[in-house]
Amino acid sequence: MPRSLAIREFTDELAAQFRDINAEWIDAMFRLEDTDRDVLDNPRARIIDAGGDILFVEAEGLGIVGACALQKTGPTSYELTKMGVRAPARGMKAGEFLLAAVIKRAESLGADPLYLLTNRKCAPAIHLYEKLGFRHDADIMARYGARYERCDVAMRYVRRSADAFQGARPL
């Protein structure tokens, strides 16, 4: 039975959730790099106060199940980063719901480019990014890819029509 999903804004009380959700998947697939630790341990300073944002997805009956950040990396450039969804919420479309909300927030911030850096081992995530409008981009890789040792995929968001997010509304 589908659960209701809701987007929650960053608060300092949710900072530990942001860290734990992301450390869990990064540790499971890779290893935490210094840049990961810096952002995860200091989300207010590294993301919020620097002009970015962090959103969470909450599932009815489960609480906070996912998080994603927009890290400002230039006057108008934003990296979609630290997106993770806890295992019990997988299959509920919580990641898609969260990603659609983060893209909408990035558009409201005037993000250009909106990009992400990942690894080909994250194939389900890459498929989701492609589904919602991200495209592989060699220029993004050249400009930003060295930020993480594990980065071998770079993608840029290509603006989509307003009806592209019909399926990503609260239940």
Question: How would you characterize the overall build of this protein?
Answer:
Strand 4, helix 4 (94-108) and strand 5 form a beta-alpha-beta unit. This protein has a single domain, classed as 3-Layer(aba) Sandwich (Aminopeptidase), CATH 3.40.630.30. It has helices at 15-29, 34-41, 43-48, 94-108, 123-131, 138-144; strands at residues 5-9, 53-59, 63-72, 78-85, 114-118, 134-136, 153-157. The protein is of the alpha+beta class and 171 residues long. It has a seven-stranded mixed beta sheet, with helices on both faces.
- What is the topology, as strand order, of the major beta sheet? 1-2-3-4-5-7-6
Q: Would you report the number of β strands?
A: 7
Distance between the termini: 12 Å
Average residue pLDDT: 91
Counted by DSSP, the helix tally is 6
CATH architecture heading = 3-Layer(aba) Sandwich
**N-to-C series of helices and strands:** EHHHEEEHEHEHE
CATH topology: Aminopeptidase
Highest CATH level, the class: Alpha Beta
Q: Write down the oligomeric state.
A: single chain
Integer-rounded radius of gyration: 15 Å
* Whole-number count of domains: 1
**What amount of the residues lies in strands?**
25-35%
Unreliable spans: 163-171
The CATH homology group name: Gcn5-related N-acetyltransferase (GNAT)
Fraction of helical residues = 25-40%
Shape: globular
